[in-house]
TrEMBL record:
<protein>
    <submittedName>
        <fullName>Gamma-D-glutamyl-meso-diaminopimelate peptidase I, NlpC/P60 family</fullName>
    </submittedName>
</protein>
<dbReference type="Pfam" id="PF00877">
    <property type="entry name" value="NLPC_P60"/>
</dbReference>
<keyword id="KW-0788">Thiol protease</keyword>
<dbReference type="InterPro" id="IPR000064">
    <property type="entry name" value="NLP_P60_dom"/>
</dbReference>
<feature type="region of interest" description="Disordered">
    <location>
        <begin position="63"/>
        <end position="83"/>
    </location>
</feature>
<comment type="similarity">
    <text>Belongs to the peptidase C40 family.</text>
</comment>
<dbReference type="GO" id="GO:0008234">
    <property type="term" value="F:cysteine-type peptidase activity"/>
</dbReference>
<dbReference type="GO" id="GO:0006508">
    <property type="term" value="P:proteolysis"/>
</dbReference>
<feature type="compositionally biased region" description="Basic and acidic residues">
    <location>
        <begin position="65"/>
        <end position="74"/>
    </location>
</feature>
<feature type="domain" description="NlpC/P60">
    <location>
        <begin position="87"/>
        <end position="201"/>
    </location>
</feature>
<keyword id="KW-0645">Protease</keyword>
<keyword id="KW-0378">Hydrolase</keyword>
<dbReference type="InterPro" id="IPR051202">
    <property type="entry name" value="Peptidase_C40"/>
</dbReference>
<dbReference type="InterPro" id="IPR038765">
    <property type="entry name" value="Papain-like_cys_pep_sf"/>
</dbReference>
Amino acid sequence: MFKKTIIVAAIISGIGLSPLGQSVQADQISSQPIDLSSLTELNNASKSLNLLRHTMNNTVLSVSQEKEKQDAEKAAQSAKTIQGDEKTSADKLIELAKKYIGVPYVWGGSSPSGFDCSGFTSYVYREALGKEIGRTSYNQIGNGKKVTFADAKVGDVLVFFGGSHVGIYLGNGEFIHAPKPGDQVKISSISGMTPDYALEY
């Protein structure tokens, strides 16, 4: 019995001393040096990446906002240009028409030496705007877009007496025309002659 105990103890002792049975001690792990510079570089790289992302997001947002601002400014400028062109066209038309106040009515006339009603409107449109609206009142009716007098704008041609007379609308209830033989180009009130409709060109 005593011999068996000695043998078992020897076996256990041999296993404990065997290289295969050696274990790694905790103090051996803690004694391993840690490279802190690598961790610092990684942390700095992460911060740089976050900063880059933030900068890119701000840049994209800024570019987008600037483009929207530019588009809005272009749209506003286009609207102003269109409105300005319309106003300029009407102003040119009326300005030229008023230059001929006092020119005598001449049947078939279409020049500053004498106008009939449609000769006056056709001449003013051609010289002021470069538009050919037709020589006779019926040509002008065929070439224009009919609108009610309530929708008439300054510069539109007004049609009277079923198409036998035309004039140019000045706004504020007035129009300019070459009325009849023995008369001259002048400004008249709508209250004395109610137009059938207006023509846009």
